[in-house]
């Protein structure tokens, strides 16, 4: 990533604005520190001047003007480093004692606290600022006692320099830190978009690499990976279904085609044509039924149908299914009955559950010999509502009870009866969709199929 485009990133801008806020507050803090240091030092200078002036005024009281002049001369001599300023002046403006050549021009008429600049005698240059106190004594005499502020200035500028360096270093670290943080973040974002592009390119097996730090990028990556797993699973499901359809419809379609081919090859035969057309129609109906069954199973297997769930009374559903099969059962001389506790409510897809129950009753009526009995029941115990379909037919051997749930599996013993081997597959898919437990058992004689629903 080029530095120019890095500057445009949100992270870097965010880092910069925080740095800006921080810098402004740091400058305010530094100004406060600098100001209060200056105040403190000036206050100390004032205290010193005050103390000295008090001492001198006591001397003036005790020993009069001459004594004061002596002391001032003596002190001015002792002050080798030029920090102190003294001046005793008569009413004509003549200096009597002290180390100043005259009363400072800039404070000519002032008394009390004054500030002025002193340029030391031998050297030239800026000189140093003095803070002093001016007193009026008797007979127009005036006294000036002061201290240089140069030490205070030095301390102040040392502090300011240190603070300035500190601030510069902070800003530098902030910019560099912001740059590297942004670059690190961007690398991960770029990594993610690279993987996403590979997935767009068709490689569905690509997954985000997690850094293991459990940060926001990791949780984003995790969600992304889960989403990809789900998409892959769904695609795999679609592929399987279409493979199955292609494979399982091929045989009957081929059969249908060769039958037509065969009759057309022979001499024209009206009865033959009619028979073939009737057989073809039956085969086409069969194909359509198989198609519908496969699609219904696919629907039941995709959780997209969850939204169609509604509260259904299984007793009503059972009664409706039994009513539908009554004519067929009667024709086959099979007694069919329903024993259902009403008042239960299941949150289900009504259409799919009806279809599943109908498939079970269809099998029971189809595979039970004449004179037998079929019964549908709805019972409950605890949190479980059980729908069962029981018959008195040949039943399913225990070792085949799992395999009959698979698509297109039919037992050899029943191969002569019409069917496509998809009925129990749908029951299985519907049970799974509703979180129900499906079990096939022995009714001795006959088959018992139970679907146990968690009560809603
Ligand atoms: N009530 C039953 N009694 C005996 N055999 C059964 C019964 N129900 C299902 N079967 C066996 O299980 C197989 C699969 O059933 P199903 O999936 O409904 O397909 P189909 O009924 O179309 O054959 C049937 O072919 C049959 O051999
Ligand atoms: Mg069936």
Characterization of the model:
By secondary structure, this protein is an alpha+beta fold. The protein folds into 3 domains: 10-154, Beta-Lactamase, CATH 3.30.450; 216-300, Helix Hairpins (Orthogonal Bundle); 307-454, Histidine kinase-like ATPase, C-terminal domain (Heat Shock Protein 90). The chain contains 8 helices and 12 strands. It has helices at 3-7, 10-78, 150-200, 216-265, 270-301, 314-331, 350-367, 423-433, and strands at 84-89, 95-98, 112-118, 128-136, 142-148, 310-312, 335-340, 346-348, 373-381, 384-391, 437-442, 447-454. Strands 2-1-5-4-3 form a 5-stranded antiparallel beta sheet. It has a 5-stranded mixed beta sheet with strand order 7-9-10-12-11. Strands 6-8 form a two-stranded antiparallel ribbon. A hairpin with a 5-residue loop joins β1 and β2 (95-98). α6 packs parallel to α7 (350-367). It is rod-shaped. 21% of the residues are buried. The mean pLDDT is 88. Magnesium ion binds at residues 359, 362-363, 419, 423.
Can you count the helices?
8
Helix content: 55-70%
Number of strands: 12
**Range of strand content:** 15-25%
Task: Kindly identify the CATH topology of the largest domain.
Answer: Heat Shock Protein 90
Keywords for this entry:
alpha+beta; Heat Shock Protein 90; binds adenosine-5'-diphosphate; binds magnesium ion; Helix Hairpins; Beta-Lactamase; 5-stranded mixed sheet; 456 residues
């Amino acid at each position: 990533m080029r530095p120019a485009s890095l500057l445009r990133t949100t992270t870097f801008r965010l880092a910069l604005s925080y740095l800006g806020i921080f810098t402004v507050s740091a400058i305010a803090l530094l100004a406060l520190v600098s100001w209060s240091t200056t105040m403190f030092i000036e206050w100390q200078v004032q205290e010193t001047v005050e103390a000295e002036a008090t001492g001198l005024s006591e001397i003036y009281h005790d020993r009069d003007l001459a004594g004061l002049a002596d002391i001032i001369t003596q002190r001015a001599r002792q002050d080798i480093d030029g920090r102190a300023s003294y001046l005793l002046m008569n009413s004509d403006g003549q200096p009597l004692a002290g180390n100043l050549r005259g009363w400072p021009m800039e404070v000519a008429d002032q008394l009390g606290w004054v500030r002025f600049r002193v340029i030391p005698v031998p050297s030239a240059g800026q000189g140093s600022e003095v803070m002093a106190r001016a007193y009026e004594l008797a007979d127009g005499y005036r006294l000036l006692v002061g201290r240089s502020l140069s030490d205070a200035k030095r301390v102040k500028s040392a502090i300011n320099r240190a603070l300035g360096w500190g601030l510069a270093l902070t800003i530098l670290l902030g910019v560099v830190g912001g740059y590297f943080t942004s670059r690190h973040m961007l690398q991960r974002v770029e990594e993610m978009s690279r993987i996403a592009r590979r997935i767009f390119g068709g490689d569905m097996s690509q997954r985000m690499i997690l850094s293991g730090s459990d940060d926001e990028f990791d949780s984003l990556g995790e969600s992304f990976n889960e989403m990809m797993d789900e998409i892959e699973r769904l695609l795999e499901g679609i592929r399987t279904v279409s493979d199955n359809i292609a494979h399982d419809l091929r045989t009957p379609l081929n059969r249908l085609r060769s039958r037509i081919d065969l009759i057309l090859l022979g001499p024209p035969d009206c009865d033959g044509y009619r028979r073939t057309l009737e057989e073809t129609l039956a085969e086409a109906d069969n194909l359509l039924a198989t198609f519908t069954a496969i699609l219904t199973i696919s629907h039941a297997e995709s959780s997209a149908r969850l939204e169609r769930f509604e509260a259904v009374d299984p007793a009503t559903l059972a009664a409706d299914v039994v009513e539908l099969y009554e004519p067929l059962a009667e024709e086959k001389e099979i007694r069919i009955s329903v024993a259902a506790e009403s008042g239960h409510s299941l949150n289900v897809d009504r259409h799919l559950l009806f279809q599943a129950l109908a498939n079970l009753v269809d099998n029971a009526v189809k595979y039970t010999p004449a004179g037998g009995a079929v019964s549908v029941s709805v019972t409950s115990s605890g949190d479980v509502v059980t729908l069962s379909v029981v018959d008195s037919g040949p039943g399913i051997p225990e070792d085949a009870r799992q395999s009959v749930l698979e698509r297109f599996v039919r037992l050899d013993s029943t191969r002569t009866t019409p069917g496509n081997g998809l009925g129990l597959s749908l029951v299985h898919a519907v049970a799974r969709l509703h979180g129900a437990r499906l079990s096939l058992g022995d009714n001795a004689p006959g088959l018992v199929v139970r679907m146990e629903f968690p009560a809603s």
